[in-house]
Structures are given as C-alpha cells and as structure tokens.
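To: structure desk
From: M.T.
Subject: fold request, one chain
Message: Could you run this one when you get a chance? Sequence is below, nothing fancy, just the single chain.
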Amino acid sequence: MVKAVLPNDVVITGLGVISPLGLGREPLVEALAQGVSAVRPLTRFPVEPWTQARLAATVPDFSLEEVTGNPKESARASPLFKFAWAAAHLALQNANLALEGELRERTGIFVGLSWFIAEYLERLLKKKHEGRLHEILPIRIENIHPYGSAGQLSYLYKIVGPTLTFSAAGQSAIQALEAALLYFERGRIDTALVLSPDVLSPYRFHCEAAAGLVSSSSDPENAPRPYDQGADGAVPSEGAVALVLERGQAARARGAKIWAQVRELRTLSRPSRFPPAPEGIGYPPETLTGLLNQLDWDRISVIYGDGKGIPSLDEAEARGIRQALGSHAPRVPLTSVQGCLGDAAGTSALFQVAAMVQSLSSSLIFPIRNLERPFCGQELDYVVGQSRRAEIELAVGLSYGWGGSHSLILLQRPE
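Reply: Done. Structure tokens follow.
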C-alpha cells in the first residue's frame, strides 16, 4: 500500500461539475439529495442487437461558448475537451481564482483519462467508411492525442507549471490527484487544477456490454442497483469534474471559500487480468482491510463506496468493509452515488469526491438509489430512502479500477 505523503494543509477551493444531472454543482447536489436518477434509454447512437443493454446516463447538450465566453476555441473543441474545459472553467470560477502572473508558474494541471479518444476516432472511422474523410481534414491532433486536454488547458490559461496526464481506467482521476498532492509536498506548486472528463462512445459502451459489466434492465427507474442482491450490472455514464487545490494558508489569506481539506490518500494494487471476467472482479476483504485500517472510526462520519451495481464487485466491497470496520460497521453510514449517476469510468471517483465535499458542507448524506436487498444486510448502515442529516467531520471515499487498483481518500470539513 502507498500512503501519499501530504503537506499539512492542502484544501479544495473550487469545484466544477458537468454531469448527466445538468451543468454545474447545484443540479448535482439537488438530484443526489432527492435520489433522482440521471439514467435514461440510450438514444445518442444505435445499440447493437447482440446486447440487451439499452440504458445510459448522458450529459444534456450545452453551449461551451456560453460557459467560457470564447467562441473561437469553443467551436474547435472535441466532445471530450468540451467537457474538460467547461468543468475547469466552472472550478476556477467557483474558486474565484484568476491565474495571473507568477501564479501561472506555480500552478499544475493534472488530468485523468480512461476512454480518452474513442469518440473522436469513431467519427473519423465513420467518415472514412463513407468515403468522406476529406470533410474533416486537416485533423486537429490535440483532439486525438491523450495529452490533448491537458495541453489545451495549459495553452488557454497560460499555465507553465507541470502539465500531466494519467490513464489507469477507473483510477485515472485518483492518480492525477495523487500526483498533484506529491507536487504540493515537494514544494513544486501552490495551486493545482485536477480534472477528469469522460465521454460515452459506442466503442466504450459495447466493450463494457461485451464484457458482461452492463445492466440488461430496460427500466431506467430500477438500474443500476448498488449493493443490491438483484443487481445485474452497471449503467455507463459520462461527464467531467474539476477540482482546484490550494495551500490552505494562501486560500485563507485571499478569503477563498474552503470546501474541504484533503487529509489522506491511500492506493494499492491487487493485480488482476484486464479486462477481468465478471466473476473474478472485486475487492477481496483483505484489500479493503489494508486500505481502511489505522483510521479512527470514532471520527469517521460516512463512507462513500464505489457501488457500481456489478454484483460480484459490490458484494466483495460490502464484505470487505464489514470485515475491515469490525464492531464499527453498523455505526458508520455507507452510501454510493452511482445509483443516480451511473458509472462514468475514470470520472466516477471525482463525482464521488464532489458528493463528499457537498456532504461536508451541507451535513447531508445522500442516499443509495435502488437498494432493497443489501449484501451483508443489517451488518452495514446503508443510507437508503432519503438523505440523512448528520454532523460530518471526516468522509471516506473508496474507488476501484480495472486491473486491480484500489484507493481511499479522506476529506475533512474545513476548520
């Protein structure tokens, strides 16, 4: 296990969200608080007849120009960068932070990508198949290169600090966040823009369906079903989340609103095949024990679990939490946002962080949607039905990536 060595005081001052529930932080919070689902029948592209999967959670169309105020660059943006730039712009706006002067040299960009270029390459292949490739030439290389989003943000905001991209399936955003924290610890940066965008493409949808990871339900009101014994798979999703991180002393000096303090980040790997067989995935109990031990459970107010709606994964996660917490298990609330949002690949971990930030701010724990017959039953304190009021000091987030990577993030309410 790797435990990130954190500087004493790194805080989250900006939060930008592009989600299937709408544009910005407010629609996300309102929908999660009420248990409203973003899952709908998939209409963006045709679904192959060999799969029964028909549901997804997609972002409603929006004008990037209206968000950024930059018509020229907005018109040139790929679907992926549209999400990335909009989230970054909203995060910087939320932080009330202008990247000017020396700050540009002390700011880093850390991007996590999972299915990064599929939707643009599919467009090229379709045009080629139709004999119309000339219509989109010359190709904008930043739209198909993995580094494209980070590079374009660096150019648009004139940031000359470290600009890095990470790809590790569902842990892509966590690795980006971990790198940012290490740069803070080494004194290399004073501000970080950490983000993860993901666009649902036909390629990604059908790959996940072929692997047996996607729900075959046709009822958007009842899928996915995190931690439920009747679950049959995840619902693919998309979106983008951006975080602005600063040194706490500087944030307080400029009068910034502090959403949360980042207290700890732990990562470990349990190597597995990629992609894994459905029956072979999940957290073994000892993995979660390794992540969760040495935490002061008397102070932990809530766990935001992965809870994708994939039965083997969710059952292993639930049993691992039960084993790791021991006698604390019935007293620590457990929830997941993927019942409302679906599984947005690498972006899901930052959707989870966004929900944790809001819980710390509002003293509200969001409920798990569609949970009726939970794994481990009453041995775990699942939050179901409606949001729960609680005094929240520390929130734990757990996430998992295909290939065996696991992580824990610990956020604290600002003092």
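Reply (cont.): Residues 233 and 310 are 4 Å apart (CA to CA). Let me know if you need anything else for the meeting.
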